[in-house]
C-alpha cells in the first residue's frame, strides 16, 4: 500500500473502525503513522479502498467532481468522426474506486460496483450531469461486484431503444442497459484496428464473435471471406443488425457467414472438414473467473488455441485473447507454446495486444490490467 496500491484487505487490519456503516476513514499504520484516507466497508473482504495519500487534499465531494472532470478531459481526444464512444472512468485507474462510466454517443452507462461508489451515488450522478449533460444515464452495475460488498443488486431497465454508436469508423447498434456489461466492448477498439490491418485478401475466422466487432473490421479492410461463430442467438441477431448498418461499406457482405454453435465443438468440426483460414481471432469470455480456477482455465485456453491452430493455413495470423485477470501474459504465452507443440507448429509472436487506452493500467494497481493477447504468425 505504501507504493500506491489502493486496496487493503480485512486480514491486514490490526483494528477496524467501530461502525456498522461504510464510511470515510483515516488509515493509520501499526505505528500510528497516517497513511492517507480510505473508504472502509465493514464485513467485506476488501475492507478499504484508498482515496487520498498523505499530503493530498482532504477527500470530499469536490474531489470526486475534480477527478471526474480530469478523467473526462484525458479522453477528449478519443472522440472523433470515427469514434463517438469511450470509457470515461475506469475505477481505481482513474482514482475513483469501483466506478465505471462509459459514454455511448450522448448516453452514459454507469456502474457503481462498490460501497464507495454507491455511497457517493448522488454526487457522482450530479457531477456527470453537470460535466456532460447526457441525454440519459443508465445504471448497468455489476451485481456480483456489489454483492461482495453487501450492496443490494440493481435491476437493469429493459431498454428496447437502439443507440447507434461509432467505434473505429464502424457503426454498431447497442441497447444500453439491456446488453452485456456496460452495453458494448470498448476495450477492443484498438485491437480491432490492428488485426484488420492484416485482413486484406484473407479468409478469416472470428470465434466468440459477439456483435461482430472483429468480423466487421476485417471485412471492411478487405477480407475475402469471414466465418463468425458465437453460441448466442441474441449476439448473432445483433451482428445481423450491425451488418445492415454498415452495408454501404461492405459491398461483399454475403461473404460473411455467421454460425450459431459452441465454439469448441465447431472448431473440431471444421478441423474434420479440412477447413483452413489465413487469419484467426479468438476472443473468448472470461474462462478464469478467479485465481482458484486458473488451472482449469489454462486447460481451456490451451484446447481453444490448439483447435484453432489445426485450422491455420501456412503463414496464417492468430490473434488470441484472454480477459481473465488471472491469466497473465507469461501464462498465456506458455499456453500458446504448449498448444503449438501439440499442433505440430511453431508460433512467432509479432506483438502483444492490450486493452484500449481509455482502459488505462495503473502501475501501482496491476489488477487494472485484465485484457491480454498476442498477435502471432503460424509456421507449419
**Which structural category fits the helices and strands?**
alpha/beta
Unreliable sequence segments: none
Oligomer: single chain
The N- and C-terminal alpha carbons lie at a distance of: 48 Å
What are the secondary-structure elements, in order, as H or E?
A: EEEEHEEEHHEHEEHEHEHEHEHEHEE
Helix content: 25-40%
How do the strands line up in the largest sheet?
Answer: 13-12-11-14-15-17-16
Write down the overall mean pLDDT: 93
Beta strand count: 17
Tell me, what's the shape?
globular
What's the tally of helices? 10
The gyration radius over C-alpha positions equals 22 Å
Largest sheet: 7 strands, mixed
Strand proportion, as a percent range, falls in: 25-35%
Textual characterization of the structure:
- The protein is globular, with a radius of gyration of 22 Å.
- It has 380 residues and is of the alpha/beta class.
- α1 (61-74) packs across α3 (121-132) and α9 (294-310) crosses α10 (329-343).
- Strands 13-12-11-14-15-17-16 form a seven-stranded mixed beta sheet, sandwiched between helices. A four-stranded antiparallel beta sheet has the order 1-4-3-2.
- The protein has ten helices and 17 strands.
What is the secondary structure topology, with strand pairs?
Elements: E1 7-9, E2 23-28, E3 34-40, E4 46-52, H1 61-74, E5 85-90, E6 99-104, E7 107-112, H2 115-119, H3 121-132, E8 136-139, H4 143-147, E9 163-167, E10 170-174, H5 189-196, E11 203-207, H6 213-220, E12 225-230, H7 233-245, E13 256-260, H8 263-272, E14 277-282, H9 294-310, E15 312-322, H10 329-343, E16 346-354, E17 372-379
Parallel strand pairs: 7-8, 11-12, 11-14, 12-13, 14-15
Antiparallel strand pairs: 1-4, 2-3, 3-4, 5-6, 6-7, 9-10, 15-17, 16-17
Helix pairs in contact: 1-3, 5-6, 8-9, 9-10
Amino acid at each position: 500500500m505504501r507504493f500506491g496500491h489502493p486496496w487493503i484487505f480485512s486480514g491486514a487490519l490490526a483494528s477496524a473502525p467501530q461502525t456498522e456503516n461504510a464510511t470515510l476513514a483515516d488509515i493509520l499504520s501499526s505505528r500510528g503513522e497516517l497513511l492517507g484516507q480510505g473508504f472502509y466497508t465493514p464485513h467485506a473482504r476488501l475492507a478499504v479502498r484508498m482515496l487520498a495519500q498523505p499530503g493530498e487534499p482532504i477527500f470530499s465531494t469536490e474531489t470526486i467532481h475534480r477527478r471526474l472532470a480530469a478523467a473526462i478531459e484525458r479522453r477528449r481526444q478519443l472522440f472523433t468522426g470515427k469514434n463517438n464512444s469511450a470509457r470515461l472512468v475506469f475505477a481505481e485507474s482513474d482514482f475513483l474506486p469501483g466506478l465505471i462510466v462509459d459514454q455511448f454517443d450522448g448516453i452514459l452507462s454507469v456502474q457503481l460496483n462498490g460501497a464507495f461508489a454507491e455511497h457517493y451515488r448522488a454526487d457522482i450522478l450530479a457531477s456527470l450531469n453537470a460535466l456532460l449533460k447526457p441525454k440519459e444515464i443508465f445504471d448497468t452495475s455489476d451485481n456480483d461486484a456489489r454483492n461482495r460488498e453487501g450492496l443490494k443488486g440493481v435491476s437493469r431497465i429493459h431498454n428496447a431503444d437502439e443507440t447507434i454508436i461509432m467505434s473505429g469508423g464502424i457503426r454498431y447498434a447497442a441497447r444500453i442497459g439491456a446488453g452485456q456489461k456496460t452495453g458494448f466492448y470498448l476495450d477492443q477498439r484498438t485491437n480491432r484496428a490492428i488485426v484488420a490491418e492484416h485482413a486484406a485478401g484473407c479468409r478469416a475466422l472470428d470465434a466468440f464473435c459477439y456483435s461482430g466487432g472483429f468480423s466487421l473490421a476485417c471485412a471492411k479492410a478487405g477480407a475475402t471471406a469471414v466465418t463468425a461463430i458465437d453460441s448466442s442467438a441474441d449476439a448473432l441477431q445483433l451482428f445481423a443488425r450491425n451488418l445492415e448498418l454498415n452495408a454501404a461499406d461492405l459491398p461483399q457482405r454475403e461473404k460473411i457467414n455467421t454460425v450459431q454453435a459452441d465454439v469448441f465443438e465447431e472448431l473440431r468440426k471444421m478441423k474434420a472438414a479440412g477447413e483452413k483460414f489465413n487469419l484467426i481471432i479468438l476472443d473468448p469470455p472470461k474462462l478464469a473467473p478467479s485465481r482458484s480456477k486458473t488451472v482449469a482455465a489454462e486447460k481451456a485456453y490451451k484446447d481453444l488455441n490448439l483447435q484453432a491452430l489445426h485450422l491455420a493455413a501456412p503463414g496464417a495470423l492468430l490473434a488470441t485473447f484472454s480477459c481473465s485477470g488471472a491469466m497473465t501474459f507469461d501464462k498465456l504465452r506458455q499456453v500458446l507454446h504448449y498448444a503449438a507443440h501439440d499442433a505440430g507448429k511453431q508460433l512467432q509472436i509479432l506483438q502483444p495486444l492490450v486493452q484500449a487506452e481509455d482502459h488505462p493500467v495503473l502501475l501501482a494497481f496491476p489488477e487494472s490490467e485484465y485484457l491480454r493477447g498476442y498477435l502471432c504468425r503460424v509456421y507449419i
